[in-house]
Amino acid sequence: MQGKILLVEYEEETSDLLKKVIRNEGHSVDCVRSAEEALRLLGNSPYDLVITDIALPGIDGIELLNRVKEISKKTIVIVMTSYPSLETSVEALRAGAFDYITKPILYEELIKIIKKAFDTCYLNRISSFYSDEFSDRYDFSNIVGNSNEIKRIISQVQKIANARSNILVVGETGTGKELIARAIHYNSVRADMPFIPINCSAIPENLLESELFGYVKGAFTGAVISKKGLLEEAHGGTVFLDEIADLSLRLQAKILRVLEDHEIRPVGGNQSQKINLRFVCATNKDLAKEVIENRFREDLYYRINVIQIKLPPLRERKEDIPLIVRYFTKRFCNEAGIPVKEISNDAMQRLIDYKWPGNIRELQNVVERAVLLSNGNIITADDLPDTLNDDSPFLNRAIDEKMSIRDYTKSFILKYENLYSEQQLADMLGITRKSLWEKRKKWGLLKKQQRPE
Ligand SMILES: Nc1ncnc2c1ncn2[C@@H]1O[C@H](COP(=O)(O)OP(=O)(O)OP(=O)(O)O)[C@@H](O)[C@H]1O
Ligand SMILES: [Mg+2]
């Protein structure tokens, strides 16, 4: 695609050279030496792409970027910087820059980035053409809550859904990270393209690579045909990388390459192909700490953490509990085909008082169970699990110091194993699924279906 480009560069020599390179590629280009002049031209006619230096006399490149985005969201901005520091680059990406390029500028790199920008711009055009009919598919009604925290999150999602930036969703287990990731996708121009969730901790590392990147025929024993990877399936849409902290360092390097070059190469293949993806990543770990402890690549951290959405634990927004309880009660009663049950006051109080280590998912499970167990049309405190009791030794209180960690963990597993998936149990205990399995094995707590034949 050929486009109309505005180049903002103070130094005449550089400007002349870049102009030639860009013209050679068949684009039309206007050059100016300051942001003020650029804004004047932008006010007169639209440009597809603005390439601007960050250091300019007067208004600087970042401020120009902000103003360009105010004038037209569709105009793509690429920034050039002579002092490559992660902070300025991240700041530029955060403000909505498509990408950044460091000086001295390599012509091939510049051409590559321009092409990439126009490919994306083309894709956005076709997808926004289709997405009108889908736009009301996601209206946030399934994100229940009335607290300031939830309101702030919904408005943040609305604001950033259409930005091109990658997003990191953080929060404890069960706080709604996947729900938010879907809301972002279905409120973006990519809504009619695929949303592909990938749980990095659920798939063994050797399988994960071929799941993500696909493989060519003969890549390994058993690869009798070529297979498309999930990333390719997601082309044009959103990839949701769940539990990103569990990605091995080797795959972190490969994902970083996808983010930087927008290319994928199947396992065993020798040809790369272009790909257009938006990444929404999620984790319940402290990624900054993972970086310090060398388990997570710093460069990847900066790439995925351009915009961060932090989901508060349920215990920090207790005012949402009654609303959510009623929402789930209604849903499960409807699903069971019975009249919607009421909740007694002391049952509600107990639900409000509990600390909810498993957050909304735990609350959802408790309500589902109570709906099914309660006899009349009122859910009472007796229909709630004992774990919610004030005098329960579990999580609700600080760990009893006389109880060893081992005993605590053991009884925790026994109490919760029927209420949660293995992954959730492991998350709540802060251990991996593998080590949960090992503990169970050691203590003879494996369930029948988990025992090796
Ligand atoms: N605000 C909310 N309103 C209604 N339901 C919610 C809300 N937040 C989460 N849920 C529900 O709670 C459950 C857990 O949410 P989700 O799977 O998105 O959490 P998560 O943070 O990805 O959890 P995990 O870390 O365990 O993977 C889902 O069934 C989701 O629909
Ligand atoms: Mg999840």
What is the topology?
Layout: E1 4-8, H1 12-24, E2 28-32, H2 35-44, E3 49-53, H3 61-71, E4 76-81, H4 86-94, E5 99-102, H5 107-131, H6 148-160, E6 167-170, H7 177-186, E7 195-199, H8 205-213, E8 214-215, E9 227-228, H9 230-233, E10 238-242, H10 249-261, E11 263-264, E12 273-274, E13 278-283, H11 287-292, H12 298-304, E14 307-310, H13 321-336, E15 342-343, H14 345-353, H15 359-373, E16 378-379, H16 405-416, H17 422-429, H18 433-442
Parallel strand pairs: 1-2, 1-3, 3-4, 4-5, 6-13, 6-14, 7-10, 10-13, 15-16
Antiparallel strand pairs: 8-9, 11-12
Helix pairs in contact: 2-3, 13-15
The structure holds adenosine-5'-triphosphate and magnesium ion.
